[in-house]
């Protein structure tokens, strides 16, 4: 990986990578003819910061390195954002991205850890990633390893009861090697999270469950870099970053539109999306 | 690094290469293609107008499960509980306990899998009158892949005492099954699909829980579907199918007849309770049975058929479905071929059984 000298250039570098990830997302889903661009685009800056901001300590040529930081994409439908980041870091050849969702491709519609180097666990059934992350954090502590476990949740996903069972366990076990990020884009499939089944106030809920809570703009790479460092510094309890995002971020006609949750752009829409993303 | 893909490609080349004959018949049928989930959505609205006690629950998939039409017409009787399937089943149980007739919908993988214990403890054990209408069952979910493809839901639901399990083959039968489920007192699991499927269920056939229907040979007296079994005819092969596999089973039977292999096709949407009488008659009149389903070969229709034949009249049974593996991403059409849920594959298996015997 490139090693940008100072923070300013690191931020520019991450922003550039986030742009590339967004381009991959719209291209991949367009080629596949299906998939989830909305929730992938909303998470692009978060995932770019983790993978290209020197936050995650991983070795692409040794994906099972025992001391690596773990990243769990609990909202597994956002697979394209993860696939793009992993390909960008060299976990697998970039031409795999063209095979997304095709019969025989390692790049399944939802991430399959048996098939893709760098994918820690198979996800897609929402609400299960935080529990697995708790298990990884407990194992790290047992083994006296200093790796951290990061997990990305959807805001709709936080309606699953299992999230709160895991949240309770994480603080009970004082897992300060566990950091959750909520992609707080305000939308799920059937509409606004607030209208379908409100999770508000999400900050207070996590706080009541014993977590340290950060609330940030999930599209500001500079802020994300800082807050991730602060989250790592929290001791004695798990930390959650509630990142306010826009679903479909970066493509005007997808932004804030629930219908772009699980629909691929057609060729005309792809062209328009690429024009916008490349112009930035 | 790119080995997994290469491996799968090689594997794929072994899958059946179907010759696609597009007959006029097929074109007509294709023009009437409709997904069973669409028929479910319409039937719910119809039911809602008839009976104010019908209530509907969904877990953030109302546009996919098609409960959205009911939600629009009867917003006060529709509960979108968010992404919380276990909670949905519990709420449905409570609604049923207090006199409502709830239809709870989500994808089959979440209804039967994720919320299994809630279905078992809160619905099946107290025998509450909850209808679980689960869409996106089987591999025809397509590109979303294994996490979303329920291949063991029939097995799970069938194992629950008192649970009725219905797997309709097309839109018309779905409507009838939903109506029958609403009139039935007790828990029902209705398995629905995402993909558009051809019309196969006869217009002049009713639907009764616990009854199967011989669809081929076609009845000589209209409406007397199962009469053919009283005539003393013997069949080389009997296909017993449910869900989307009824159509290819019928196609296979027609093709095999032309080759001089007399076949029978029975649909068995009522996987539980299963039509024992009909199955025993079929077993007595057939040299072998092939069961077809969009489900694991473990615990589904094939197992249900074997349980009946083994007890009453053992005959060789070939169980066709998904062979004890998870599904994967791909288009519905590609997956149907990959897993051999095609008339070509059914013919191949039937021919092998018949020729092996001679
Ligand atoms: C257990 C489970 N229930 C339902 C679904 C279907 N589903 C896929 S994505 C989604 C909405 C997710 O909303 P959110 O968590 O807010 O994700 P985002 O907005 O970031 O895409 C649903 C209901 C699922 N994948 N898993
Ligand atoms: Mg969301």
Envelope shape of chain A: globular
Distance between the termini of chain B: 49 Å
CATH fold-level label of the largest domain in chain B: Rossmann fold
* Proportion of helical residues of chain B: 40-55%
Strand order of the largest sheet of chain B: 3-2-4-5-7-6-12
Low-confidence segments of chain A: none
Strands of chain B, total number:
14
Query: Helical percent range of chain A?
Result: 40-55%
Write down the overall mean pLDDT of chain A: 97
The CATH homologous superfamily of the largest domain in chain B is named Thiamin diphosphate (ThDP)-binding fold, Pyr/PP domains
CATH secondary-structure class of the largest domain in chain B: Alpha Beta
What number of domains of chain A?
1
- What is the second-level CATH architecture of chain A? 3-Layer(aba) Sandwich
**What is the strand arrangement across the widest sheet of chain A?**
1-2-3-5-4
Our estimate of the beta-strand percent of chain A is 5-15%
Question: Radius of gyration of chain B in whole Å, from Cα?
Answer: 20 Å
Number of helices, counting only DSSP H or I runs of 4 residues or more of chain A: 10
Oligomer: heterodimer
Order of helices and strands of chain A: HHHEHHEHEHHEHEH
Model description:
The complex is a heterodimer of chains A (280) and B (358). By secondary structure, chain A is an alpha/beta fold. Chain A has a single domain, classed as Rossmann fold (3-Layer(aba) Sandwich), CATH 3.40.50.970. Chain A contains 10 helices and 5 strands. Chain A has a 5-stranded parallel β-sheet with strand order 1-2-3-5-4, sandwiched between helices. In chain A, helix 3 runs parallel beside helix 4 (79-88). Chain A is globular and about 50 Å long. The model of chain A has no long low-confidence stretch (mean pLDDT 97). Chain B starts with a helix and ends with a helix. In chain B, helix 3 (36-50) packs parallel to helix 10 and helix 12 packs across helix 13 (301-312). At the A-B interface, helix 7 of A face helix 1, helix 4, helix 7 and helix 14 of B. The site of magnesium ion has 6 residues of chain A, from loops.
């Amino acid at each position: 990986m490139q090693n940008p000298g100072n923070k300013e250039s690191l931020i520019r570098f991450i922003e550039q990578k986030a742009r590339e990830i967004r381009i991959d997302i719209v291209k991949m889903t367009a080629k596949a003819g299906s998939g989830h661009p909305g929730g992938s685009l909303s998470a692009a800056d978060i995932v770019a910061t983790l993978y290209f901001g020197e936050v995650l300590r991983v070795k692409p040529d040794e994906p099972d390195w025992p001391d690596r930081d773990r990243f769990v994409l609990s909202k597994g439908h956002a697979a394209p954002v993860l696939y793009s980041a992993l390909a960008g870091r060299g976990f697998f050849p970039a031409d795999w991205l063209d095979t997304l969702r095709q019969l025989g491709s390692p790049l399944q519609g939802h991430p399959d850890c048996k098939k893709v180097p760098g994918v820690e666990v198979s996800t897609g059934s929402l609400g299960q990633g935080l529990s697995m992350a708790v298990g990884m954090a407990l194992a790290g502590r047992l083994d006296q390893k200093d790796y951290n476990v990061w997990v990305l949740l959807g805001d709709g996903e936080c309606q699953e009861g299992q999230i709160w069972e895991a949240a309770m366990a994480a603080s009970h076990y004082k897992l300060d090697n566990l950091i959750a990020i909520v992609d707080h884009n305000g939308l799920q499939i059937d509409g606004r999270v607030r209208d379908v089944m409100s999770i508000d106030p999400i900050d207070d809920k996590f706080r009541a469950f014993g977590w340290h809570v950060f609330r940030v703009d999930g599209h500001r790479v500079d802020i994300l870099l800082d807050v991730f460092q602060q989250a790592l510094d929290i001791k004695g309890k798990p930390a959650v970053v509630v990142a306010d995002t826009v679903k479909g971020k970066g493509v005007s006609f997808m932004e804030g539109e629930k219908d772009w949750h699980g629909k691929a752009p057609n060729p005309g829409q792809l062209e328009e999306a690429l024009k916008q993303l490349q112009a930035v | 690094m790119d080995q997994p893909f290469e491996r799968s490609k090689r594997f794929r080349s072994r899958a059946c290469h179907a010759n696609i004959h597009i007959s006029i018949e097929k074109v007509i049928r294709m023009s009437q293609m409709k997904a069973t989930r669409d028929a479910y959505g319409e039937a719910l609205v119809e039911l809602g107008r008839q009976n104010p006690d019908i209530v509907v629950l969904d877990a953030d998939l109302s546009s996919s499960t098609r409960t959205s039409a009911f939600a629009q017409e009867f917003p006060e009787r529709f509960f979108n509980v968010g992404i919380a399937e276990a909670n949905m089943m519990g709420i449905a149980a409570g609604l049923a306990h207090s006199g409502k007739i709830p239809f709870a919908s989500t994808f089959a993988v979440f209804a039967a899998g994720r919320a299994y214990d809630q279905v078992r403890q809160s619905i099946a054990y107290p025998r509450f009158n909850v209808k679980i209408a689960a869409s996106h069952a089987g591999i025809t979910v397509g590109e979303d892949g294994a996490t979303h493809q329920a291949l063991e839901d029939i097995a799970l639901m069938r194992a629950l005492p008192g649970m009725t399990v219905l797997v309709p083959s097309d839109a018309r039968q779905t409507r009838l099954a939903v109506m029958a489920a609403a009139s039935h007192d007790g828990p029902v699991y209705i398995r629905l699909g995402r993909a558009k499927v051809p019309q196969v269920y006869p217009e002049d056939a009713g639907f009764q829980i616990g009854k199967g229907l011989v669809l081929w040979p076609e009845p000589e007296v209209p409406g007397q579907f199962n009469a053919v079994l009283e005539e003393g005819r013997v069949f080389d092969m009997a296909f017993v199918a449910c869900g989307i596999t009824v159509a290819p089973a019928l196609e296979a039977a027609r093709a095999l007849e032309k080759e001089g292999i007399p076949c029978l096709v029975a649909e068995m949407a009522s996987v539980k309770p299963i039509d024992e009488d009909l199955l025993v008659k079929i077993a007595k009149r057939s040299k072998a049975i092939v069961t077809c389903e969009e489900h694991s070969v473990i615990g589904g229709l094939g197992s249900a058929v074997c349980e009946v034949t083994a007890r009453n009249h053992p005959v060789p049974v070939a169980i066709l479905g998904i062979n004890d593996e998870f599904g994967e991403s791909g288009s519905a059409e590609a997956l149907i071929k990959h897993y051999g849920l095609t008339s070509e594959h059914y013919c191949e298996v039937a021919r092998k059984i018949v020729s092996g015997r001679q």
